[in-house]
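### Sample
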Amino acid sequence: MINIKYADAIKTFAQIESEVIPGGIIFLFVEGLTIKWKVASKNFDMDRFKAGTDLPETSVAARAIREGNTLTEKVPREKYGRRLVVTSIPFVDDSNTPVGAMSILMPRLHPVAAGFPNFAPIVAELFPEGAFIYMTDLTKVAYIQSSKKFTLPNMYVGYELKATDIAYQTIHNKKEQTKEISEEVYGVPVYVANYPLYDEDTGKNIVATIGVVTPKSAATKLKNMANNLASCLTGISATTEELAASSSKIHENEQNLYSHIESIIATLDKINGVSEFITSVANQSNMLGLNAAIEAARAGENGRGFSVVAEEIRKLSSQSKETVPQIKILTDEIKQKISEVNKESRQSLTSSEEQAAATEEVSASIEELSAMTDELNNLAKDL
C-alpha cells in the first residue's frame, strides 16, 4: 500500500515510465471507484479507460481497495478487448484506510509476440525468394515483417481479418491452415501457412496466430517455360509430321520413277530386238535382191524390168542396214542416260528412306520432350 501523500511524486514517476516501458503501459489513479487521472504510452492506450470513468465493483482496483492488498490479475481478452496484466496498489490515508488505488495496465503478450521484433527480420531473410511474416490477434493484424525481396502492400498493422483470410480460418477452425493463392490476389502466386498460438497458461484457447507468406515466382517461371516449350514443340511436331508426310510422298514418287525407268529399259531392249530383226530382214532382202538380179541377167531382155526392181530392193536393204547401227547408237545413248538416272534415282530413293527414318527419330524425340514439359508443369505445381 502507498500513502496518498506520495501520489504527486508517483504521478511524476508514472509519466517518465510511460515513455520507457518497451511494450507500453497505462497508469490509472483511482479514488473510490472513479478514475481521476491517467497517463499512457504513445504505443499503448485504451480509450475505455479515461478520467471520469467509473470502474465496476469487480475490477481489480475495486477489489484491491476493498481488500487493502496489492492485486495482480491476468485479464482475458473478452473483458476489455485485449489481453492485459493489471496490477492495483491501494492508496491509504494516514490512518491506513484504503481511499483509492494506482492501477498499472500492461499488454499481455504471447511469448512469440514478445520476441517477434527480434526473430521475424532474421527469419524473413532466410527464404531464397523472400518472405512476409505476420501475427494477428483474434480480429486484426498486430505485427508485420517484410523481407528485402518480398512484401505484401495490402497487409498492414490494424488490417481487419475477413472470413476469406487464412488467419481468420485458423482461428475459427482451431487448427493450422496452408494454402496456395493465385496471382489475382497479391500479384504473384503465393504459399501461405498460418498457425494458431494458444494461451501460454492453459494451452487451450487461441489468442493469436502467426503466418508466413512466400512467393512462388520460381514455379511461375517454370510453368511459363513449360508452356512456351510445349507450344514450340507443338509447332515443331506439326512441321515434322508434314515433313514426314512429304518424305513418304517423295519415297513413293522415287519408287514409281524407278519402276518407270525399269520399264523404259525393258522397252529399249525390245527396240534393240526389233533392230536386230530389221538387220536380219535387210540381209535376207539383200540376198533376195542379189538372186533376183542374177535371174534377171539370165532372162536377158525380158528380165530387164525385174532387174530394176531387184536393184531397188538391194538399195532398200542397204539403207535399212545402215539405219540399224544408228538406231543402236541412239538406244545405247538413251540406255546410258537412263542408267545414270537410274543410279541417281537409287541414291535418291536411299536418301528419302534415310530422311523418313530420321524424321521418325525426330518425332520420337519430340514426344520425349513433350513428356518432359508435362513433368516441368508438375514440378511447377509442387513448388
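Residues 217-299 form the longest helix (83 residues). This sample (Methyl-accepting chemotaxis sensory transducer) is used throughout the tutorial notebook.
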